[in-house]
Structures are given as structure tokens and as C-alpha cells.
Design brief:
By secondary structure, this protein is mainly alpha-helical. It has 2 domains: 11-58, Homeodomain-like (Arc Repressor Mutant, subunit A); 62-205, Orthogonal Bundle (Tetracycline Repressor, domain 2). The protein is built from 10 helices and no strands. The longest helix has 24 residues, at 126-149.
């Protein structure tokens, strides 16, 4: 018998489509009801497939959830990776805020999924936080501190600066219903919010 590991079979186009249907439906369900409040029956109804069909592609609810989270974390960290040490600090931070607001516009369900996981104590993402988020956070706050030490941006707490950017940008996705109500459903809320946040952070950080 050969010791060569078997390669996983490539999914057919229909199988790829069904798997994506399940993932999209699960993202809707999990972002609204969280992991604990969601069921495979809800996901099956949302995607129009039977529960046995779903279990052909995934081992269960947790497998779908973890697959979504693994896909999300790379997307979520990408804008922070782009913070360029060689760039102009104020412009780099401004571009980061713009990218975060674009993610709020494009991926509100993903943002709420991430928020729900954090609220629950990150039971399925703690490893990612330690191995992926924390080292990147440390590198980028060290970069912010370096810019402060060189007088290129105003001196403040680099850690809370980055957390504040996360909080203010992601709020518009995580609390979308509240924002819509208090802003009377204005269509240009995210555009106005982006300009407001850019002005606020640039005034705070201008040396």
C-alpha cells in the first residue's frame, strides 16, 4: 500500500455552487442570531437545501461557523497589513480608515459575525487572536509609536489609537440598525461618517 497521502477530490461546479450557497446562508443566519442561536434547520431553509445535503459538505454547524471565521480573519486583517512604514504617516492612517469604512460598507454581515464571536468570549477564535491578531497589532502599534517618536504624528497611546479606529469604523456595521434609526435612514451616512472620522483622527494626530 502506498504511503502517499490522497489528494482531496476537486469539487464540481455544482458542488462549489452548493457549498457557496450554504456559506452565504450561514453568514446571514450567524450574523443575526450568533452561533448559539442558530441551527442547521435555519441554514437549510435560508439556502434552499436539505439538512442532509448540508451535512454532505460540512460536518455540522460548528464546521460551517469555523470555516466562515477562518475566511473572515484574513479579510479582516488585510487593511492593517497594508499600513506602510515607508509612507506618510497621516496619509497611511487615513487610507487605513478609508479601507475599514469600505469593509463596513461591503461586509456588514461579516463584521457582525466577528462581533458576535468576540461578545461570546471568542471560544472559536482565541487561537487566531493569539497567533494572528496580537502579533500584527504589536507590530503596527510599534510602527505608530515610531512615527510618534519621530514627531511625524502627535504623541498618544498607539494601542488605544488603533482600537479606537476599529471601534468607530466597525460600529457602523455592528450597530447598523441603530445608526439607520438615529440618522433617519440617510443614504449617505457612510460617506459622511468616513469624512467625519478622517477629520477627527487627522486633527488628533497632526503634529
Amino acid at each position: 500500500m502506498s504511503d502517499t497521502p490522497l489528494k482531496p477530490k476537486k469539487l464540481s461546479r455544482i458542488q462549489q455552487r452548493n457549498r457557496q450557497l450554504i456559506m452565504d446562508a450561514a453568514l446571514d443566519v450567524f450574523s443575526k442570531d450568533g452561533f448559539r442561536g442558530s441551527t442547521l434547520d435555519q441554514i437549510a431553509k435560508a439556502c434552499g437545501l436539505s439538512k442532509p445535503n448540508i451535512l454532505y459538505y460540512f460536518d455540522g454547524k460548528e464546521d460551517i461557523y469555523i470555516t466562515l471565521l477562518n475566511r473572515l480573519i484574513d479579510t479582516w486583517l488585510a487593511p492593517l497589513h497594508e499600513l506602510n512604514p515607508q509612507g506618510d504617516p497621516l496619509e497611511e492612517i487615513s487610507d487605513y480608515i478609508r479601507r475599514k469604512m469600505e469593509m463596513t460598507r461591503a461586509f456588514p454581515r461579516e463584521s457582525r459575525l466577528f462581533a458576535n464571536e468576540m461578545i461570546q468570549g471568542a471560544p472559536r477564535m482565541k487561537g487566531h487572536l493569539l497567533s494572528g491578531v496580537k502579533p500584527l497589532f504589536d507590530r503596527k502599534t510599534a510602527l505608530l509609536q515610531h512615527w510618534m517618536d519621530e514627531g511625524k504624528i502627535a504623541s498618544t497611546d498607539a494601542r488605544h489609537l488603533l482600537i479606537s479606529i476599529w471601534a468607530t469604523t466597525q460600529h457602523y456595521a455592528d450597530f447598523e440598525t441603530q445608526v439607520t434609526v438615529v440618522m433617519d435612514g440617510a443614504d449617505n451616512t457612510l460617506d459622511e461618517a468616513t469624512e467625519f472620522l478622517l477629520t477627527m483622527f487627522r486633527k488628533t494626530l497632526r503634529p
